């Protein structure tokens, strides 16, 4: 059975996942890249560094964002969001980083790793996981489809 996802299912998928695909365009060609994200019920939050993606987003903030959950080729759900990229600064960037880190970074380290069982010579921190630019996607439209066998 193929069908369209209702709003509640779309929201559940966005809350339950942390990897999505961000698509943008420079007007000549599309560009898509996987990103980690957090969804707070209103916005998609992410972080990035200076580079191709950020250059494109600053020039053309219209984006498409896709998230899916796939069990197998006959059992999947997919959400597509159309929205606007917004670069964040100050208090908004700080709030975005807290939302993102609270959701994504607890999943970054295996629960089977215990510092007391391994010799460590350096302090473990998130310095290598912190990127310089925080952003959000202002959702303008969200759609979803599924297949269930």
Textual characterization of the structure:
- The radius of gyration is 17 Å and the shape is globular.
- The protein is 22% helix and 44% strand.
- The longest helix is centred in the middle third of the chain and has 15 residues, at 90-104.
- Strands 1, 2, 3, 4, 5, 6, 7 and 8 form an eight-stranded antiparallel beta sheet that branches.
- The chain has 149 residues and is α+β, with helices and mostly antiparallel strands.
- The model has no long low-confidence stretch (mean pLDDT 88).
- The termini are close together.
- The chain has helices at 7-16, 52-59, 90-104; strands at residues 2-4, 19-25, 30-36, 38-39, 43-48, 62-72, 75-88, 133-147.
Would you list the SSEs in sequence order as H and E? Answer: EHEEEEHEEHE
First and last CA, distance: 6 Å
The proportion of residues forming helix, as a percent range, comes to 10-25%
Structural class: alpha+beta
The helix tally amounts to 3
Number of strands: 8
Report the principal-axis shape.
globular
How large is the share of residues in beta strands?
Answer: 35-45%
């Amino acid at each position: 059975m193929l069908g369209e996802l209702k709003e509640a299912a779309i929201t559940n998928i966005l809350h339950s996942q942390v990897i999505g695909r961000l698509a943008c365009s420079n007007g000549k060609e599309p560009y898509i890249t996987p990103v980690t994200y957090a969804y707070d019920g209103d916005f998609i939050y992410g972080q990035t560094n200076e580079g191709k993606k950020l250059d494109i987003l600053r020039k053309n903030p219209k984006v498409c964002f896709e998230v899916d959950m796939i069990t197998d080729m006959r059992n999947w759900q997919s959400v597509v969001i159309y929205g606007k990229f917004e670069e964040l600064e100050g208090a908004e960037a700080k709030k975005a980083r807290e939302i993102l880190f609270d959701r994504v970074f607890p999943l970054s380290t295996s629960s089977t790793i215990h510092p007391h069982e391994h010799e460590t010579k350096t302090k473990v921190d998130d310095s290598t996981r912190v990127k310089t630019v925080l952003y959000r996607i202002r959702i303008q439209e969200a759609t979803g489809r599924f297949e269930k066998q």
